[in-house]
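User: I'm curious whether this sequence folds into something compact or stays loose and floppy. Could you predict its structure so I can see for myself?
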Amino acid sequence: MTADADEFAALRPLMFSIAYRMLGSAAEAEDVVQEAYLRYSRALDEGAAIDSPKAYLSAVVTRLSIDELRSARARREIYSGEWLPEPLLTNETAPDPAQTTEQADSLSMAFLLVLERLTPVERAVFLLHDVFGYGFDEIAPVVERSAANCRQIAVRARRHVEEGRPRFEPSREERDALAARFFAAATEGEVDGLVELLADEVTVYGDGGGKVPQWSRPITGVERVARLFANLGRRIRAMGGTIEPREVNGQPGAVVRDAQGELVNVFALDVAGGAVQTIRSVINPDKLRHLGPVADVWALLASEREMRSTGRDRRPPG
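Assistant: Here's the prediction. I'll summarize afterward.
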């Protein structure tokens, strides 16, 4: 590695963290980070004096993310069904230096959806200052505003964020234990076991992006959600698939795999008050490819129909 490549490699996790929180997309964040490196390398080759690679790269990544977010918002207006961020399997595949509680919470799907309320510049100022600890004097040239204006933008953005900031179970151990019980009950198709773990107003959101079948509207209510996941667990088990509890975006979740070990979808849970409050399901294959080989959901459904028609479906009754 050259000196500039070494410097970039050390800063890359931070750059990805900024880009991903700005965009809610791992693939787009990777593209932004790669483009930032190319610009950084080109600037050095042309003899530019870069006193602080961190400041330079942070500025480029943020500006590219602002531009990308503006165009992405237009695409999301015509997105088929519910739009959810691309999931990250944290502590495993996500190059994210979320060392503080603030940074970990800011990675959650719930928080990323709250950030959608902000303009691109508000999002950049809020993230750089409140999450990553940049000073307003550092942020000002990045967003081409004065430091005083950035301070005002941060106040406004913070107010919007606080209005919708998600609540999470304060104890990681309790949160993870409850999630493990939830996915175990789902796998076994235990409706009563699921009912005990769900909040009264539990809501399920699904993102298929129009590429594969998914719930077209949010599903709310203990009984409906419990029966939904009990049935889903039975179907997954009958097909030889698995539900593997994992940490998703810093919160409890799970990865669903088919009999060949390929990804079907990813669940992320919001746990608070000793119950599962929200369940988000990302099954859009375009949003899962960065995590590994993705299953053909249409082929799985065809196989399930064939099993039923030939009497090979061995799902438990109920």
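Summary: Residues 124 and 257 are 35 Å apart (CA to CA). The chain has twelve helices and six strands.
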